[in-house]
Specification:
- The structure holds 2 protein chains of 2 kinds.
- By secondary structure, chain A is α/β, with parallel strands linked by helices.
- Chain A has a domain at 4-263 and 411-490: Amidase signature (AS) domain (Amidase signature (AS) enzymes).
- Chain A is built from 17 helices and 11 strands.
- In chain A, β2, α4 (105-112) and β3 form a beta-alpha-beta unit.
- The radius of gyration of chain A is 21 Å and the shape is globular.
- Chain B is an alpha+beta fold.
- Chain B has 15 helices and 16 strands.
- Chain B has helices at 62-74, 172-189, 229-248, 294-303, 308-319, 323-330, 333-343, 348-366, 377-389, 394-407, 411-417, 426-439, 441-449, 453-464, 471-481; strands at 4-6, 11-23, 82-83, 85-89, 99-103, 112-117, 123-135, 139-145, 148-152, 159-165, 201-211, 221-224, 256-261, 266-272, 282-283, 290-291.
- In chain B, the strands form 4 sheets. In chain B, strands 1, 2, 6, 7, 10, 11, 12, 13 and 14 form a 9-stranded mixed beta sheet that branches. A 3-stranded antiparallel beta sheet of chain B has the order 5-4-15, with no helix packed on it. A two-stranded antiparallel ribbon of chain B has the order 3-16.
- The longest helix of chain B has 20 residues, at 229-248.
- Chain B is elongated and about 95 Å long.
- The relative contact order of chain B is 0.10.
- Classes of the chains: A alpha/beta, B alpha+beta.
- At the A-B interface, α10 of A face loops of B.
Chain lengths: 492, 485
């Protein structure tokens, strides 16, 4: 055990640049950690051979002085990003053997920057879930699970595999996608940093679609600086995605100061939920105090349509999903379960290929788009979504960033909320608004719950202003001094 | 056109509107870079986007948008500055995405109209409701192999313009005229090749009937698959009569989709109202609203060629043609251009006669389109010059035309090489006339009583000179020799 797998991205980059370590050594350390912690079930597919070949090539470029931004840095990729020649499953039985003949734009940028692919991480099936328990490849275990606890804790979702892998020091960083909180909530549950940039900042080309108007790629890492570095390499305009923005990507890495002096930080009063655990409330207040102490000004703001956000999200997202997932019909690729005729083949393929949560959302989505219901549900939801956007616009007239808890609780046990979809959906209460408004959001570990589990704070920014939320997050990170290690590692 | 159906209980009127799917001329598909050429090997023109692969996203082809705007401008229609692409959701194996990207609530083009040219030389306006852009589906080949259906995705994702008319059509023949005019306009502006055999132009008809004088519409049926000019009128007429029969026997027309069976010449039910799909249209979140700026619209407007109606009016004015002849000439832009080259600096009416009668006749006998005409317009012009100069007679001209059309040789060259110059030298004709007069005393006598016999002599002289003698001159010389002057 070399311990190199515990290095963060920025630190490893520095050591690689000085040739104190090699990309192959670093990659091997991660591959060994992945093997040691297979019990976490963080990966659907490990790619050790490809990883070592890529690391070797990276060492060559490092030696020749041709290093890219992420040269030689091993990364895990959520198994929702299509990777050419590497199985991409979306954690679904229906794509269990699907090997894409193309590369997603985000991962193509990573490889062009010199990053090394360690493997594809587990997730909720088609990114639908908040606990990583809907995966066809089994649940992911949160590395913060106290020793011996059964059932173990969930890592959050949907990017649970990526969060667990980064938290468990299987890799320094990982990609995720966030449709309603799928990066920020697992980051909070696993005690790491997770950032979802502004909708349109990263290309969606080659990412298996869940809800097109909400999906956005982002980064997991163990520090704000590391997250900024990974996101830097992922972001940018892509003519292959009509919703990606033709804007220059700022230098987030170079511009990261952590200075919040003079910034106005909004505290949305509607995020004080009835029945929210006192420790979450206390964490939030502590976070606000840290920022005030660092020179920021606190402003109470109102986001009056917050209470409509979850119902709106659970109409818009399933509606888009019901259409996006229609292509999985067993005709051209993926699972096909033959029936006596076409209709039966469709029914069997989709009935057996999709898990219960995916089927539930397809049903909801189909229902809300149906003739006679469209106006009452989908159209109404679109109108409310507009109101939510306006709420944020009004709030950002009075402040530069918002501070909220990331999730209403710490990680819960596998199976705890599985039979109550509405309780499960409540996990996303603080995060879905950000997706509905297309804003950038970041979760930073800010403390531990009474039972010793990580809790995160969320910073929300104006569209295209990732720089400010990175600085605010950095300030929180410095104040929080979150150094706790998951029991998995504390055990040795 | 005053077309009605006389039933047992009275006169019925047809109410019909057409939905035309016109394939946009474009090298690439509406949302992908895959090629669109007709007749390629199955599944060789398919991108991962067309095949509905995971994570693939549509990117709108700007050229197809320009083609739709151009078409809208040519139909004198409203161009909507903002239009929305929506998803039309349904399952079928030749629809890989599980939805067709189409336009529903906000199409790119709104109301416009088309003038149809009636056989009596008059015109009638048929309203256009809308034009929208959408993707074509792939092709299902049933029964090519036992128990399987094969799918060809080449056509999948190709850009179509759906052009919907108002229910303004009142006679089956008007539907044909509407289609012909629409096809002519599309071909003029180069936005659709109008080839119905290859499926570039497809037509569905909405048909209902009502008693003459009734202001209300009856229940309509949508007739699918009326995919040739020949069948359009037939299908509509059959369907209208079917509906009249139902109504007159006390029945009710069910709103349904019917399929036209070209071999049986009848329509049959495809699916009823209850089986109608719920397409669950909603705006495609992968695509932003399509916004058009004025500069683009104005550029496209400036690029529009002279359209058939304007050209027809000009031909009547400039060349003194009849409305009918002008209409025939402008139907195809290439034919109109050909005519104008022939007519340049010459007698327009004469040029029109030669193009319509001789050239179109020769082309149709050879099964050729005007684009493949072996006789260049300059050559036909040269022929008309030879005629005008008096170098050749009208009869010789027709022979020279045939030779030039078949061989591609120039008319003047043919005339010279084959010695077809008209003989205008009286000295060369007089001996022939004298000989015929001497050899046919009986006919000479007849001619004096019946002046028509003069024509026999003229004919004999023409025959003897191989048609080269100037007929006017021959006529004069014969009359002189017969002492008829």
């Amino acid at each position: 055990m070399s311990g190199l797998e515990r290095l963060g991205l920025v630190e490893a980059k520095r050591l690689l640049a000085r040739r104190e370590i090699s990309a192959v050594e670093l990659t091997r350390a991660c591959l060994e950690a992945m093997e040691r912690h297979r019990r976490l079930n963080a990966f659907v597919t490990e790619t050790p051979e490809r990883a070592l070949a890529m690391a070797e090539a990276a060492d060559g470029r490092l030696a020749r002085g041709e290093a890219g931004l992420l040269e030689g840095l091993p990364i895990a990729v959520k198994d929702l990003f299509c990777t050419e020649g590497v199985r991409t499953t979306a954690a679904s039985k229906i794509l269990a053997n699907f090997v894409p003949p193309y590369e997603s734009t985000v991962t193509a940028k990573l490889w062009a920057a010199g990053a090394v692919l360690l493997g594809k991480t587990n997730l909720d099936e088609f990114a639908m879930g908040s606990s990583n328990t809907t995966s066809a490849f089994g649940p992911v275990i949160n590395p913060w699970t106290p020793p011996g606890q059964e059932p173990p804790l969930v890592p959050g979702g949907s990017s649970g595999g990526s969060a667990a892998a980064v938290a468990g020091r299987l890799c320094p960083a990982a990609t995720g996608t966030d449709t309603g909180g799928s990066i920020r909530q697992p980051a909070s549950f696993c005690g790491i940093v997770g950032i979802k940039p502004t909708y349109g900042r990263c290309s969606r080309f080659g990412i298996v679609a869940f809800a097109s108007s909400l999906d956005q790629a982002g980064a997991f890492a163990r520090s704000v600086a590391d997250a900024a570095l990974l996101l830097q390499a992922m972001a940018g305009f892509d003519p292959k995605d009509s919703t990606s923005a033709d804007l220059p990507v700022p230098d987030w890495v170079g511009g990261l100061t952590g200075r919040v002096k003079g910034l106005r930080i909004g505290i949305p009063k509607e995020y004080r939920l009835d029945g929210m655990p006192a420790e979450i409330e206390a964490l939030w207040a502590r976070g606000a105090e840290w920022l005030r102490a660092a020179g920021a000004e606190l402003v109470e703001v109102s986001l009056p349509h917050t209470r409509c956000a979850l119902p709106t999200y659970y109409i818009v997202a399933p509606a888009e999903a019901s259409s996006n997932l229609a292509r999985y019909d067993g005709m051209r690729y993926g699972l096909r379960v033959p029936g006596r005729d076409l209709v039966e083949t469709y029914k069997k393929t989709r009935g057996e290929g999709f898990g219960a949560e995916v089927r539930r959302r397809i049903l909801i989505g189909t229902y809300v788009l149906s003739a006679g219901y469209y106006d009452a549900y989908y159209l109404k939801a679109q109108k409310v979504r507009r109101k939510i956007v306006q709420d944020f616009e009004a709030a950002f007239a009075r402040c530069d960033a918002l501070l909220t808890p990331t999730a209403p609780s710490a990680a819960f046990a596998i199976g705890e909320k599985s039979d109550d979809p509405v309780a499960m959906y409540l996990n996303d209460v603080f995060t879905v608004t950000v997706n509905l408004a297309g804003l950038p959001g970041i979760s930073v570990p800010a403390g531990l719950s009474a039972s010793g589990l990580p809790l995160g704070l969320q910073v929300i920014g104006r569209p295209w202003d990732e720089a400010t939320i990175l600085d605010v997050a950095r300030a929180l990170e410095e104040a929080a001094e979150f150094r706790a290690l998951p029991p998995l590692l504390a055990e040795g | 056109m005053g077309w009605t159906i006389r039933g047992r209980t009275g006169e019925w009127e047809l109410v019909c509107g057409l939905e035309v799917h016109a394939q946009v001329i474009s090298k690439a598909k509406l949302f992908s870079a895959a090629a669109t050429a007709f007749g390629a090997e199955p599944n060789t023109q398919v991108s991962p986007v067309d095949a509905g692969m995971p994570g693939m996203l549509p990117v709108l082809n700007g050229f197809c948008v320009e083609q739709a705007v151009k078409t809208g401008l040519a139909l004198e229609a409203e161009i909507n500055r903002v239009s929305i692409f929506e998803r039309k959701n349904y399952f079928y194996p030749d629809l890989p995405q599980g939805y067709q990207i189409s336009q529903y609530q906000k199409p790119i083009v709104g109301r416009g109209w088309i003038l149809i040219d009636l056989p009596d030389g008059g015109t009638r306006a048929i309203g256009i409701t809308r034009l929208h852009l959408e993707q074509d589906a792939g092709k299902s080949l049933h029964g090519a192999r036992e128990g399987v259906t094969l799918i060809d995705l080449n056509r999948c994702g190709v850009a179509l313009m759906e052009i919907v008319s108002e229910p303004d059509i009142r006679a089956p023949e008007e539907a044909v005229l509407y289609l012909k005019k629409l096809r002519s306009i599309l071909r003029y502006i180069g936005t659709c090749d109008g080839n119905m055999e290859e499926g570039s132009l497809r037509c569905d008809a909405n048909v209902s009937v009502r008693r003459v004088g009734d202001p209300n519409f009856g229940t309509r049926c949508e007739i699918k698959n009326v995919n040739s000019m020949r069948f359009v009128a037939k299908a509509i007429e059959y369907e209208a009569k079917r509906q009249v029969d139902i109504l007159e026997s006390g029945g009710v027309v069910e709103q349904e989709t019917r399929l036209f069976d070209a071999t049986k010449g009848e329509t049959r039910s495809m699916r009823g109202k209850e089986e109608a799909h719920d397409y669950r249209y909603f705006p495609d979140p992968d695509l932003l609203p399509l916004e058009l700026d004025e500069a683009l619209i104005e550029r496209l407007r400036a690029e529009l060629p002279e359209l058939p109606d304007a050209k027809k009016a000009r031909f009547v004015r400039q060349y003194g043609l009849s409305a009918y002849d002008a209409g025939v000439l402008v139907a195809e832009r290439a034919a109109a251009d050909y005519f104008e080259k022939v007519a340049a600096g010459r007698d327009g009416k004469l040029a029109a006669n030669w193009v319509i009668n001789e050239l179109f006749g020769a082309l149709s006998r050879r099964g050729l389109e005007i684009d493949a005409c072996p006789l260049p317009a300059e050559a036909l012009g040269e022929l008309l010059d030879l005629l005008a100069e008096g170098t050749i007679s009208g009869k010789i001209a027709k022979d020279v035309f045939q030779k030039a059309f078949e061989t591609g040789r120039g008319p003047r060259e043919i005339v010279e090489a084959e010695g077809l110059r008209q003989v205008v030298d009286a000295g060369a004709i007089e001996p022939v006339v004298a000989r015929l007069v001497a050899e046919n005393p009986q006919q000479v006598e007849n001619a004096k009583k019946n002046p028509k016999v003069v024509g026999w002599f003229v004919g004999q002289v023409m025959k003897a000179t191989g048609g080269k003698a100037n007929p006017g001159l021959v006529n004069d010389l014969v009359r002189k020799a017969l002492g008829l002057e």
